[in-house]
Amino acid sequence: MEERRCLRCGAPYEEGATVCFTCGASIGELETPTQPVRAPRRPTADAAPPREPAAQSEQAPAPVVTATEPEPLGAPHPLTVGTSYQPVVVTPRPPRRVRWPLIIALLVVVAGLVTGGAIELRALLAPPPVPKTITYHDPEGRFSFAEPALWSVTPRTNGALLADSSGANTLTITVDATQADQTASAVADELATRLGLQAAPAVSIGGAQWEQRTGSVIGSDGATRILTVYVDIHASAVYTIQTSSPSSVADSENTLVYQPLLASFTFG
Questions:
Q1: Which among 82, 149, 190, 195 could disulfide-bond with 131, CB atoms 3.0 to 4.6 Å apart, if both were Cys?
Q2: Residue 242 pLDDT > 60, yes or no?
Q3: Tell me, what DSSP letter sits at residue 77?
Q4: Nearest 5 degrees, angle CA 39-CA 15-CA 30?
C-alpha cells in the first residue's frame, strides 16, 4: 500500500484523511501535480518534531508548499484588549476674554492722575503772579508814578511817603516852593552837606535832568543805610526824591523798586 504524505510538512497521513494532523493543512487543497518543494517551518513548543520522510517511490507526487506572504515592515499592530494604553483627549482651552471696560476704566484713572500731577507740578514751578500795576496820582495834580507792589503810599501836604511792609525801605517825594535865584544844583549840594552825601552823575526822570547825590550813612538805630537824593526845579517848584535802604539790600531795592518807579514818574 502506497504511503501518503502531506505536501506541506511531509508528514504521513492515513487514506481518506482530509486534514494533516501535523501542520493542519487541507489534504485536498494540497494535491497538485506540481513538483514538491520542501520549505522550512518554524518550530513551535506544542508541535511535535517532524518525522523523517521515508523514501518515496518514483510514482508518488512531490509535495508542494506555498509560501505565505510576509508581513510588511513597519505595519501598525492593532491594540488588543487588556493593554494599559489609555488615549489622551486634549480639550482646547477657551480663549480669554479681554475685559475692555476694566481696561478703559484703568486708563481713565491713570490719565486723571497724570493730569492732576502735571497741574500740581506746574503750580509749584510757576512764578508768583505779578500784581497789577496801580498808578498813583498826587491829589494836588503835581506828579504821578506806578506804585511798587506790596508797598504802601501815604499822601502828604508837600508830597508822598512810600514804604515797604517792614518799613526798612522808604522813598519820599517832596514838592516845595522855590526861592529867588535858586537852582537844583544848589539845593542838591545843600542836602548833600547836611546828610553827608557825595556828588553823582545827573539822571533823567520824567523827561528832565535831575541832580543826584548819594552816600552811606549811619542811622539813629546804628544801622548803615544807603541814601540817594534827586533834585529838580519844575514849574517854580523844587522837586526832591529821596530813597533810603539798608546797605545789605540797597542794590536789589534800587534795581527792583526805585529805578522802575523813577522811570514811571511824570509831572502833573
A1: 149
A2: yes
A3: P
A4: 35
C-alpha cell at 81: 484588549
Q: What pLDDT band is residue 112 in, cutting at 50, 70 and 90?
A: confident
Cα dihedral 105→107→110→115 (10° resolution): -110
Q: Say how far apart CA 40 and CA 42 lie, in whole Å.
A: 7
For the chain, the structural domain boundaries read 1-65, 134-267
d(CA 126, CA 174): 39
Say how far apart CA 120 and CA 100 lie, in whole Å.
Answer: 30
Closest to 261 measured CA to CA, from 165, 134, 174, 131 = 134
Question: How far is the C-alpha of 1 from the C-alpha of 193, rounded, in Å?
Answer: 179
CA angle 89, 90, 95 (to 5 degrees): 150
Helix, coil or strand: residue 162: strand
Q: Is the confidence at residue 137, as pLDDT, over 70? A: yes
Q: Is the pLDDT of residue 115 over 70?
A: yes
Residue written as grid cell 506544542:
46
Q: Give 226's DSSP letter.
A: E
Under 8 Å between Cβ of 256 and 169: no
Cα angle 187, 191, 194; round to 5: 140
Q: Where are the alpha helices (DSSP H) in the chain?
A: 27-30, 100-125, 184-195, 250-253, 259-264
The residue type of 171 is: L
The HSE-up count of residue 218 (CA atoms within 13 Å, CB side) is 1
CATH number of 134-267: 3.40.1000.10
Taking residues 202-210, what's their average pLDDT?
A: 96
Identify any residues that bridge with 193 across adjacent strands, giving them in sequence order.
none
Cβ(150)–Cβ(256) under 8 Å? no
